Known about the structure:
Radius of gyration: 24 Å
Number of strands: 14
Low-confidence stretches: none
Strand content: 5-15%
CATH architecture of the largest domain: 3-Layer(aba) Sandwich
Distance between the termini: 59 Å
Shape: globular
CATH class of the largest domain: Alpha Beta
Structural class: alpha/beta
Amino acid sequence: xxxxxxxxxxxxxxxxxxxxxxxxxxxxxxxxxxxxxxxxxxxxxxxxxxxxxxxxxxxxxxxxxxxxxxxxxxxxxxxxxxxxxxxxxxxxxxxxxxxxxxxxxxxxxxxxxxxxxxxxxxxxxxxxxxxxxxxxxxxxxxxxxxxxxxxxxxxxxxxxxxxxxxxxxxxxxxxxxxxxxxxxxxxxxxxxxxxxxxxxxxxxxxxxxxxxxxxxxxxxxxxxxxxxxxxxxxxxxxxxxxxxxxxxxxxxxxxxxxxxxxxxxxxxxxxxxxxxxxxxxxxxxxxxxxxxxxxxxxxxxxxxxxxxxxxxxxxxxxxxxxxxxxxxxxxxxxxxxxxxxxxxxxxxxxxxxxxxxxxxxxxxxxxxxxxxxxxxxxxxxxxxxxxxxxxxxxxxxxxxxxxxxxxxxxxxxxxxxxxxxxxxxxxxxxxxxxxxxxxxxxxxxxx
Length: 447
């Protein structure tokens, strides 16, 4: 089988592992990795793998990346001109419309105008970046069409598709790319066919069938609706969490009873807050889409309220703590977990770091620990990778459900600090030990 030459533009959380996975497919793909910050990528990702370092929590992905890089299966460059060799161009660049929307829209147009200058006929653009609904039809395609026209190339001389990512860093990072329900759409029937054929070459589509939308707008909207639903689900539980500690209600036990019903088992539990790159921004994209792309007057009061609630969820936890401790003044606090979710090293928009900053703003001393965060984040936020002695602190806050914290020896627990579980981190064995031995333990939502 002749190889497809694939360019992956943007070597971040989505693009880099995708490039390595494609390059690891024997006899299928020749890969070009393109990033404007290629020197940084080489320093932080490529060189460590050349030196046998492991960057990810996923052992399988580490092996894939090492094979791809050591065997020179990816040509890394910052020169976008290299796409003129490619059959497929995957765009994984972050266009974060949350910050300076008009500047980002201008940057997006400039990027695709430049990209179109080097596209060859019969090549396919596949966008995996999350975008406000309507961006492809109203902004990107007209930009590409105009640039191609100057080259006397018709828009129908290329293939254009959109397939949003559902990549999840962590223990199954690679599988989130190759074994996940992929949604896609093409600008026309032939683009859809080409996209489907390409995706089938590296996705386990027999176990995880591909879902094809009739048009790109529906596909763009699916990602925003999906993450809006998740954000609303999280925000919903916050008001019940406040009710639970105001009225001594065991919310966690109530949720246990509700989750018995299969139709209700996705109800969320009390937690410190929402983090990560998607849920903290994606739901807001619909406002930009309606006002600036479609110029309509639709409103999304529930979605917008959920975003506001989620941004303030750490204050619910702080209120809970203050209700149990008369004053935080002169207290020394240990925060356990700096990542935005369990068993990942990613600290983007982490509620634990927001909590750290809020405590610091109020001149309350706190130390942040995480077993798997990287050196850059450790230096930036003062994160410790080694676990301090609990007895040195007045309060110990369990904030992220890393497996590491469930494996802590019970001997590590001492009677001096007050323990707070703010995210259902501790298991029943640990909580029963603390209760049996008269340790001070408070659980958000009830023990």
